[in-house]
Every structure is written in C-alpha cells, then in structure tokens.
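Q: My labmate handed me this sequence with no annotations at all. I'd like to see what the chain might look like in three dimensions before we decide whether it's worth expressing. Could you predict it?
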Amino acid sequence: MTAIVLLPGLDGTGELFAPLVAAWGDRFRTQVVSYPRVERLGYAALADRVRALLPLHEDYVLLAESFSGPLGVMLAAERPQRLRGLVLCATFARSPLPLLRWMAPLAQAVSPAVLPDRALAWGLLGRYATPSLVVAIRQAVSSVSPSVLAERIGAVAEVDVADLLSEVRVPVLYLQARNDRVVSQRAVKPFMVLGERLRVVSCAGPHCLLQASPGDAAAVISTFISSLPKTSE
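A: Here is what I predict for the chain of 233 residues:
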C-alpha cells in the first residue's frame, strides 16, 4: 500500500485534511504532518522537521497544500529514495501575492485568527462555504499562535523555490482551484519547467479545495498515484 505524507496549509495543524482522508477510505496509508503551534519556524526549519518524518522503508507520495507547496518542492528536489510522486494543491513556488512583502509587518495585527468568519469564508471558501467548514477552519487557525501565523505569512512573502524545480525528478500533479481567491491561476507558471513530469488538473472549487471538494480531489489524486511507477527496492 502506498503511503501519502500530507503537509498542511497555513494553519499547520493537519486537522483540515480530515475530509480528504475520509474520502480515500482505506486505499492509502496516510501520514498527516502537523507543524508547531507556538514555535515560530520558517521554511528551512520546517523542512528539517518534515524530512525527519519521511518514510524510509516504503514508497510514498508527498502532498503539499497551499503554504506547504514550497516545502514539497524543497524536499522533492533532494530526491528522497522512496518518493514516488509529488502532489501540489492551490500552491506556489514563488510568493503568490507580491503585496505580502509590504504587509508582512502587519500580519500579526491582521492574523487569520482575528478575521471574522465572513472574511475567512469569503477568501478561503467562497460560494462553497458551509457552516461546518467555516467552524473547522476557525478552530484550526484559532489553535495556532498569532505570532506563528504571522511568521508563516512573512515566509510566504519572501519565498522563491522556483530554481529548485529543475532538481525534481518525480512526476508532479498540480491541482489548480478555479475559484481560488488567494492563489492566482498564474502561480502554476514556474512549474511548467517540469515539462512532461507535470500534470495540471483544474478543479472547480475554492482555495480550500481539499476541504470543499474532497471526493473530486481524492479521485484525481488516486488516478495520479495509480499511474506512478514503483521505485526500485
């Protein structure tokens, strides 16, 4: 059975993967990674944490959502022995919002944790918002220190791992959310350097695609994984 290592979005809790994991059932062994809720860590430090958790004795696929996309690229570029593929969802190789560089110093004051539910729902879910999804997102972001969220927003403002994409050798699936209000459709452009190794699938859904449309996302990811060649033992 193929393992899937799931790297979460900005909240870092991993709790928001529950709908996707439920949609998969027992088709895959899932390993949900969570990031510290009170320790401020940038991309390099988080990569060190995740690297230590990667499977050593079984084939696996790395799935990186939103904030974690650069982490997925960083780790895949190291060519871990048992990595079979990389799935990227609603994410980026370069900062998706150039204005973040100027807004980062204010990030703690405008932390997602203090935004009203209506604002969270508008940005992350749009017309796909449901009361249960809004509650789940609120609980996740509220469980993380505002200073940690601010650190992550600052990291997004500065990140650029596009040069590492040429080192990625495994097949890559990029899930693009057509109704994304956070990450522009143009964010996929740097990934085009992957050529035939890249498959882009456009899905109807918001930035929180894996939460709003877990069944559709699970089906696309399952098809991608079934097409992957096995690594040599």
